[in-house]
Fold this protein.
Amino acid sequence: MSTKLERKYGLFTAICMVVGTVIGSGLFFKAQNVLEATGGNMPLGIVAWVITGLLMIICSLQFSQMAGRYEKVSGVVDYAEATCGSTYGYYLAWFLANVYYPAMTGVLAWLSARYFGVIFGWSLVSAEVMTIASLFLIGSYALNTFSPKLAGKFQVSATIIKFIPIVLMAVVGVIVGSVKGTLPQNFTEIVGLPKGGTTMSGLFAAIVATVFAYEGWIVATSINAELKNPKKTLPIALVVGSLVVVAAYVLYYVGVAGGASNKVLMEQGATIAFTNIFGSVGGTLLNICIVISCLGTLNGLMVAVTRSMYAIAARGQGPKPEMFQQVDPATNMVSNSAIWGLLTSCLWMVYFYGANLTSGWFGLFNFDSSELPIITIYGMYIPMFIMWMKKEKDLGAFKRFILPIASIVACLFMIFAAIYAHGITPYLNAQKEGKFALPVAFYLIVFAMIMFAGKLVMGKKNTLSKE
């Protein structure tokens, strides 16, 4: 069997990987969270969406610089290896393969099924939803494993389809809202901040609410070994894709404001805006588009998770590298790596259900596996940016210092936002109830155990490294 992947994806597919993986369910339900955080202050909510979008754009700009210089097998792993050395690159690759990608993939399978269940009135923790989630997960795996080219086409199609409700709401919502006076009213009237809240605290809470809606863009770097002219294609895809995402989020948020008053939107969410503008059929259409949107995100994550062990094995490292680096000549797909990705995604989906959708199966070790890995991935970017400044001496001041420093600040904010949302807030709430909860700390314990397991199976020295 071959150990090389065919370069089969172009620029448009790469852009759709960025846009399609980031824009999932978050776009459609975070509008309500932002309005609640800002007390119905529409302009303040827009500022929150733009600020968080700028953080993503800054990081994507930095990675676009790296993509233009480093290219071996798997995007962000290549960048980690080039800046911080082969050992650091291995640990990042191990984390991506066994925590970040599969945890997010498992959650997206459930989210896709959850919104599919809404159409039929099923409970979000029902047997029907969990069964459909399993089918979505296996179906996405099968699509990517047996027909990776078709998976790329599905990513493009899902990205285009998910823009239907976004464009409709952005255009029709603004027109209807302007004619009826709902839109200008929502921009001038404020429902009121939560008790004790201030404009700044509301803005910060809104930014925290939007942080995780922008996550997932780094997934596009996982296919750089299969991109045509990746040193040119990937930087463009990262930047263009990020700009499209920010524009879509802001325009959709403004369009929703044309469909109902801020107070109603805060109480009932964006679905009521669709229903008011497009009728009951509009609400159903929205749910169908959300399902397709989530499936597009699931597909993008599956693209990454199925290739994650290959990124390690191609370097001659990890467990059984000779097995995981094999490429099936019939499909030009890393089938053994894909099986590992499916199994780890299943395990993390079961964990998410037990830890977050039930009374809690894991005692103190119940944490949100959909968002807490983000703390780690952004933390692991920081040494890469620092070493970039140290090593890339031929660059000008902006590319060598200003951009990476701005990216470090963006990463630190993302980390703080995650800790604030999943560490400080749960701890304070538990203290009020006389209980104990410190999910971030227990997540880090699990993370340390998984990384130690990676150390045990690291194997021989990286065969792709210059060291």
